[in-house]
Design brief:
Helix content: 55-70%
Oligomer: single chain
Number of domains: 1
Distance between the termini: 46 Å
CATH superfamily: Hypothetical protein af1432
CATH topology: Hypothetical protein af1432
Strand content: under 5%
């Protein structure tokens, strides 16, 4: 295992604090109302564990990946606080919320093959964590059919990403399989 340069640890901690501050009033959409910050933390953890990512800037981007999309943070704020590389990674995985939802979802599928390696890993980790959350604690008001649609769409996005990380892809496949299995179990109850 490659040691992480000590100079990078403060940057990672600043990214975690920044994300926590900007997501502080947000919760996941499930009935459990988990603090939103759990999601970027899980994405960063999955990248480190399953993909073996030790690049602090990629892990920072994982922590910050939803700040521009889901908070008042602007891309320039990420550049100023964390530099151009982290900002570019965040931008690669950020949806344009001014577009209709159906268009944003279609763009994720069409953009997936064009993501950089690092953004592709980040997108797979994000979808893996979302699939886990979606099936373990679905958004309030979502019926089983809508959850299945989400799983199908997530598979399309991830299927378009060129990835050389079999452990991360296995984590995604396991999350999809667990989700589909739990939904099938829900049908028979």
């Amino acid at each position: 295992m490659n040691p992480v340069p000590q100079i990078s640890i403060p940057l990672l901690m600043r990214a975690a604090a920044f994300a926590a501050e900007h997501h502080r009033n947000q919760q996941r959409k499930g009935a459990g109302k988990a603090p939103y910050i759990n999601h970027p933390l899980q994405v960063a953890d999955l990248l480190a564990e399953a993909a073996g990512v030790v690049d602090i800037e990629v892990l920072c981007a994982a922590l910050l990946h939803d700040t521009v999309e889901d908070t008042a943070v602007e891309p320039e704020d990420i550049v100023r606080e964390f530099g151009p590389r982290i900002a570019a990674l965040v931008a690669e995985v950020t949806d344009d919320k001014s577009l209709p939802k159906a268009e944003r979802k279609a763009l994720q599928i069409s953009h997936a093959p064009h993501l950089s390696r690092e953004a592709g890993l980040l997108k797979i980790a994000d979808k893996t964590c979302n699939v886990r959350d979606m099936t373990r604690d679905p958004p309030v008001g979502w019926d089983q059919a809508r959850v299945v649609q989400y799983l199908d769409w997530a598979e399309q996005v991830v299927g378009g990403i060129s990835c050389d990380c079999s452990d991360l892809l296995q984590a995604f496949s396991a999350a999809i399989a667990e989700g589909r299995s739990s939904l099938q179990g829900g049908e028979t109850e």
